[in-house]
Write a structure and sequence with these properties.
- The complex is a heterodimer of chains A (113) and B (113).
- Chain A is built from no helices and 12 strands.
- Chain A has 113 residues and is mainly β.
- In chain B, the strands form 2 sheets. In chain B, strands 2, 4, 5, 6, 9, 10 and 11 form a 7-stranded mixed beta sheet that branches. Chain B has a 4-stranded antiparallel beta sheet with strand order 1-3-8-7, with no helix packed on it.
- The termini of chain B are far apart.
- Classes of the chains: A mainly beta (113), B mainly beta (113).
Chain lengths: 113, 113
Amino acid sequence: GNSVTQMEGPVTLSEEAFLTINCTYTATGYPSLFWYVQYPGEGLQLLLKATKADDKGSNKGFEATYRKETTSFHLEKGSVQVSDSAVYFCALRGSGNTGKLIFGQGTTLQVKP
Amino acid sequence: EAGVVQSPRYKIIEKKQPVAFWCNPISGHNTLYWYLQNLGQGPELLIRYENEEAVDDSQLPKDRFSAERLKGVDSTLKIQPAELGDSAVYLCASSLNSQETQYFGPGTRLLVL
């Protein structure tokens, strides 16, 4: 079945450091890929998405590229801020018409001033 | 535009008691989802509605869980009786249809004692 694997956290960085959170997936067909972010005390928010191979999703300085050859969708940001501290979830939606999102276990990011 | 509304935000009950959660999706969104999020894990789909029809409830433990979406708008999720292992966050999400972006509510955090 479909699945998503994320790097384990927590990830602790200093402000302005470079961020990478790894995400790999297993799926049949051509899934859509997502990154959601969950700030403390809030619900999940869509950060970015990519719906086909080689697409790059971007938002708020974050980027991720859909790599079908490596089945990966790693999240990157060139310079993190304290306000980026949150839990980040990688997710996929299968190529069927189910709408079901399958999430990774989440990676906690803590950015220190 | 108002987001997905859930209530209550927090609920503490004793085991074997019933509990219900309520969700009001974004106006005009036909698809509604209930997800379960255990501590330190990503959300897992419990049930998906297309309008008032439950089209995917394969992950809903039907011996104690039930859900309804009367009139295809608001939805309730019920547990009766609750067990200690039901302690988790219950998330509601909605989307225009099953292929569009899912927007999440803040969740209901349930603690069963």
